[in-house]
Amino acid sequence: MANGTAAYECVSEEALSHLKTYKYSSVDKSLISRYILKHYWNGFVELLPMWLAPNMVTLLGFCFILTNVACLEIWMPDLVGPGPSWLYYSFAFGLWMWERPSSIAAGHNSKEYD
After folding, report:
1. Predicted pLDDT at 109
2. Where on the phi/psi map is residue 4: left (φ > 0), alpha (ψ -120 to 50), or beta?
3. DSSP letter string over 33-97?
4. Which residues contact 90 (CB under 8 A, 6 or more apart)?
5. Long-range contacts of 38-45, Cβ-Cβ distance < 8 Å, separation of 24 or more
6. How many beta carbons lie within 10 A of that of residue 104, not counting itself?
7. What is the DSSP string of 5-22?
8. Cβ distance 94 to 68 under 8 Å?
């Protein structure tokens, strides 16, 4: 260990200089995304306050999944037999509410979905 850091052992100084200037960018060439989903995502982005961090948006979506697991544990703890029908609808809603914030977090962060 020349300078006592693990990063020095794994990544060269040249690579670190490039890493410090790295900026994520992606190109979405999907026609469905461009002409249909972009407007859908924009609508959801506008609903969120700008002070809300993108990671918090994703975490809020994950809370729906945790709520689904808690409901499953309460109303069907042995995972045997049919549960109440509303429970299965809550799973679909929870999954949709988890996926939605995950999809719009980037747009919320950079307003890239113009």
Report:
1. 60
2. left
3. IIIIIHHHHHHHHHHS-TTS-HHHHHHHHHHHHHHHHHHHHHH-TT--S---HHHHHHHHHHHHH
4. 67, 68, 71
5. 38/113, 41/103, 41/104, 41/107, 41/113, 42/107, 42/113, 42/114, 44/100, 44/104, 45/104, 45/107, 45/108, 45/111, 45/113
6. 24
7. -HHHHHS-HHHHHHHHT-
8. yes
Q: Is the dihedral of CA 49, 50, 53, 59 positive or negative?
A: positive
Question: What pLDDT is attached to residue 94?
Answer: 92
Q: Which of these, 90, 103, 93, lies nearest to 40 by C-alpha position?
A: 103
pLDDT tens across the length of the chain (114 residues): 455 555 556 777 787 788 788 777 777 788 988 888 888 877 888 888 878 887 888 888 899 999 999 999 999 999 887 889 999 999 999 998 888 877 777 666 655 444
Placement of tokens 């309460």 in the chain: 74
The identity of residue 62, as a single letter, is: F
